[in-house]
Design brief:
single chain; alpha+beta; six-stranded mixed β-sheet; 8 strands; about 15% helix
Length: about 190
């Protein structure tokens, strides 16, 4: 993880209190049943609610064929919405300001879904000073890994697919947006047996 720092806007900083002990680990509730893309519920619960440092294995999302099929079928002018596995709140929308092919290529390169600032719903996502990426409800989502882009620094937000797949019943929302920001985010926390 990154040393303690402040991330520039549009990133929204959070405090350690977000991840304080609650009724179910760092969250008030466990992950939802019947997670989208058939992500493993037990693995998602462990990673999202009882963990602050570890993740799904690198490349896990490439083994989730239902996610890859949805990405392949998503029209060029639409995006996939990624939800908090615990609360069902929309956390990320991708791709924005790039193609699905570019989103997937960057995610493959990093090993986890990778999101840019414009793809993050900053109403519900916070970055802690050590780079941990969390939801406002205490779901461990991933980490920030800065990378150099030209003269400036860009951030890549890595998130666990298991953390981003709410109940399949509510997973049909797809928005249409077109923005481009400098930071990236990767999410990898959403698994479930179905």
């Amino acid at each position: 993880m990154a040393p303690n720092r402040t991330y520039p806007p549009p990133a929204v900083m959070g405090t350690e209190s977000i991840m304080s002990k609650k009724a179910h680990g760092t969250s008030a509730v466990p992950v939802q049943a019947n997670l989208r893309w058939k992500v493993d519920q037990e693995v998602a619960d462990r990673i999202c609610n009882f963990n602050r440092h570890y993740a799904e294995y690198s490349g896990y999302f490439l083994k989730v064929s239902k996610f890859l099929k949805e990405a392949d079928r998503t029209p060029a002018d639409e995006e996939i919405t990624f939800y908090d596995s615990n609360t069902g709140k929309a956390l990320f929308h991708a791709p924005r300001g790039r193609t699905m092919e570019q989103f997937l290529a960057e995610s493959r390169n990093h090993g986890w879904p990778s999101f840019r600032d414009a793809e993050v719903n900053w109403d519900y996502v916070r970055i802690l000073p050590n780079g941990e990426t969390v939801s406002v409800d205490g779901t461990h989502l991933g980490h920030n890994l800065p990378d150099k882009k030209g003269a400036g620094t860009a951030s890549t937000w890595f998130a666990w697919l298991a953390a981003l797949t709410e109940s399949a019943v509510r997973s049909l929302d797809v928005g249409i947006h077109a923005k481009n920001e400098v930071h990236n985010i990767v999410i990898v926390c959403n698994q479930s047996h179905g």
